[in-house]
Structure formats: structure tokens, C-alpha cells
Design brief:
The chain is of the alpha/beta class and 408 residues long. It is built from 16 helices and eight strands. The protein folds into three domains: 98 residues, no CATH class; 50 residues, no CATH class; 243 residues. It is elongated and about 95 Å long.
């Protein structure tokens, strides 16, 4: 049987309704509605705690109501004032489970501040924006800074986590340049690694600051992941950065590599006149979207003959072309996910949008935390791998072949 609301709670609702809320602007209606729900909730709490309704007498009952104490609470819709019921004559004092003592902010507010800060709004602008949301009192500079640091601390803990439990199939690495420290105009490279796991899930693996995507930066980045237990993947996908390729060859000598076909197409198109770019792009797509590797190689031969007037474009295509076709060894159903670095590039697009607002970071940790949180946010929309029985069988065969080569 469902118990009806207490008499006091019913009075609260009636009083609120009598205020003719429909005549207020929408913002006031929302605030009044939030106040009504919280007020009713705390009235129900004390009724349950005392075991009896307002003015109800129960033999042997302990404690009694003792008026109200005003309380201001910050919500997304603004400041609202709650009359917190008081009680006396109890072994233990009554405290609301919904609004604990001295709590002045709801959890969603604490989550809002660091996200505003890391999404490109300064501490001063955060205070100004939050003041409009929270009411006249707003938040202090120190409170905003403290809340913003929470998101950086979470990133630091994530960056040092153990990776030995991850069963990685495909590892994707790429970098993005953002302004960090000083006003020289030089941009630092933020190195990023994501991966597809054996169960098809796609996860963010690591984010670190480098130096112009140099060989040493990439080597240190990969060695840090190895230190934390990173296993050898079946395939590593890169954008073709010489420093990264060299580091991969040194640390993963037996692992296949796939060069991003999208970057290769863009490099070729840069060497072609604008009037021919559409046709050249269509011919390149016939290579990289061919149904078999034989058809892809046939497309390469046709491209050489057809576009021989663009000598530099043909040379660019042929350079490391085998590394662009590695994906043909793997399950067909995975080709779309592993022939490019798009898995990271989409996250980079969101990062660039925020960096344009911020300009330059004066703090490395906050720069890295921004990249981490924006890619993590994009991760919720990522597509994983479809792991059919056929795909699993092909991957098992590739693994067995690698193990036999290592044993030999």
C-alpha cells in the first residue's frame, strides 16, 4: 500500500500552487518547482524519522518537531531557500540525507565548474557565468580553482594506471599541437594513443606532452606505456610521422604497421592542381577502398600511367605504399576502423575548437587534462569493432603465425 504524503508536505504543495506560478517567467517557475520538490522531500524525511505526521500524537514516540531553520541551496536553476525542519528530544540529531549539514551546493554544480574551466573559460569568466546560474552570491575564486583542480587530479591518476590487463588488437597513435607555456608562439605536441581491444571495445590509452613529435618524444611515450604493462598489439596505425615510425620499429620490431590512408591521400592531393583534384581523389579512393589487395595494386598501376604528368604526386603515392595496404591482412569487417587514424582525429577536432578559445596554456597538466577530457567525452560516441566468428578466426591465425615466427 502506498502511503499518502504527510499533511505538512501537502500544505507545502498547496502554498506553492497558490502563488500562481504560471504567471512567473519560466526561470522562476523552474526555481519554484525545484524548491517545492526539495521542501516536500525534507518534510517527508523528518516525518519518517519521527515516525508520525505533523501534529500527530503517538504513544511512546520520542522526539518532536521544533520549528525551522532557513537554508540556501545552489542549484543549476539558481539559489533557492529551503525551510529545514528541526527536531528535539532525540538520542541522535536529525540530519537530512538529501541535504547534509553545511551543504550549500548540489553535486551537479561541482561537476559543472571544472568542465566549464577546461572547455575554454577562464576562472574569472567561470565566476561570472556561474553567478548568473547560482544567484547573487556566486562562488569565490578559490572555490572555482579548487573544483577545477579535481579534474586535473583525476587525469593524473588515470595517466599512471596499470595497462597490463588490456588485451589490445589495434593500437592507434597520433599527435596534436597546442600552445603550452610562454608566449614564443611555439606549439608543443600532445601525443595520444587509443586502442581497439579483443572484445571490440575502443579505449583511450595514454596522453602525454612531447616535443614536436620527435623520435625521442615518441620513444619515451611508448616506453612509458610499456612500463605500465602495455602488451604487443597485432597492428599499429600511425599518420606516417617519421619519428613515430622509427620509435615503433625499435620497440615493436615484430608488429605490423598501417599508415593512415587519409593522410596519404591528402599528401598526394597537395601535389596536384586544383582542377584535377576531384578526379585524382576518386582514383585514390579506388585504390584504398578496393575489395582486395590485388585490385588495390591494379589501381596503383592505373594511377601511375594516368597521372604521370604529376611526377611528385606519383612518387608520393608509391613511397611506403605497402604500409598503406597492411589492413588487407586483417578481417574485412575491421578495415574501416584500421586503415586511418580517424579514431583519434575526431577527438582532435573537438580539442582544437576549445584551444582556439583558450589560446595558450600556462600549465602543462591543464593542457593535457583538456585533451584527455575532450577525447574521453568523444569516446562515449566511438564505434567499436564487430567481432564476428570469422573475424576472430582470422585474428587467431594471425596471432599463431606471429608466435611461430618468434619461435623460429
Amino acid at each position: 500500500m502506498i502511503r499518502r504524503l504527510s499533511k505538512k508536505a501537502e500544505k507545502v504543495i498547496k502554498k506553492m500552487m497558490d502563488e500562481r506560478l504560471f504567471e512567473h517567467p519560466l526561470g522562476l517557475v523552474v526555481k519554484a518547482g525545484a524548491r517545492m520538490m526539495l521542501q516536500v522531500a525534507v518534510e517527508e524525511e523528518i516525518t519518517d524519522y519521527l515516525g508520525r505526521d505533523y501534529y500527530e500524537r503517538t504513544e511512546g514516540a520520542e522526539g518532536y518537531r521544533n520549528g525551522y531553520k532557513g537554508r540556501t541551496v545552489k542549484l543549476i536553476c539558481g539559489d533557492i531557500k529551503i525551510d529545514m525542519p528541526q527536531a528535539r528530544g532525540l538520542d541522535k540529531p536529525f540530519h537530512s540525507a538529501l541535504l547534509s549539514p553545511y551543504q550549500t551546493r548540489m553535486k551537479e554544480i561541482e561537476e559543472l565548474i571544472p568542465l566549464l574551466y577546461l572547455n575554454g573559460i577562464s576562472t574569472r569568466k567561470v565566476k561570472r557565468a556561474v553567478k548568473k546560474v547560482l544567484g547573487k552570491r556566486g562562488l569565490s575564486h578559490q572555490t572555482v580553482s579548487n573544483l577545477s583542480e579535481k579534474i586535473v587530479e583525476e587525469f593524473k591518476g588515470w595517466k599512471e594506471r596499470d595497462l597490463s590487463g588490456l588485451k589490445i588488437l589495434y593500437l592507434i597513435m597520433d599527435g596534436i599541437r597546442i600552445g603550452v607555456r610562454g608566449g614564443t608562439g611555439e606549439k608543443e605536441a600532445v601525443l595520444v594513443a587509443t586502442a581497439f581491444l579483443e572484445d571490440g571495445e575502443r579505449v583511450l590509452i595514454s596522453v602525454e606532452l612531447g616535443n614536436r613529435e620527435s623520435h625521442n618524444s615518441w620513444k619515451m611515450f611508448i616506453e612509458d606505456m610499456r612500463r605500465r604493462g602495455l602488451r604487443d598489439p597485432l597492428l599499429i596505425i600511425t599518420d606516417g610521422s617519421p619519428g613515430l615510425l622509427r620509435a615503433v620499429e625499435e620497440i615493436f620490431p615484430g608488429t605490423d604497421t598501417q599508415r593512415c590512408t587519409k593522410h596519404k591521400m591528402e599528401n598526394v592531393l597537395e601535389k596536384v592542381l586544383k582542377e584535377d583534384q576531384k578526379e585524382v581523389r576518386d582514383d585514390l579512393r579506388k585504390i584504398f577502398y578496393a575489395p582486395t589487395i590485388e585490385h588495390a595494386r591494379e589501381g596503383i598501376s592505373i594511377f601511375e600511367k594516368k597521372w604521370k604528368k604529376y611526377t611528385s604526386a606519383v612518387e608520393c603515392l608509391l613511397k611506403d605504399i605497402d604500409a598503406c595496404l597492411t589492413y588487407y591482412k586483417f578481417p574485412y569487417i575491421h578495415w574501416k576502423r584500421i586503415r586511418t587514424t580517424n579514431a583519434i582525429e575526431r577527438g582532435f577536432k573537438e580539442v582544437r575548437q576549445r584551444v582556439r578559445v583558450i589560446g595558450r596554456f600556462q600549465n602543462e597538466d591543464r593542457a593535457l587534462a583538456l585533451v584527455y577530457w575532450k577525447i574521453k567525452d568523444a569516446q562515449e560516441r566511438w564505434n567499436g569493432l564487430c567481432m564476428t566468428e570469422e573475424a576472430k578466426e582470422i585474428l587467431r591465425a594471425i596471432k599463431n603465425s606471429k608466435m611461430m615466427k618468434m619461435a623460429a
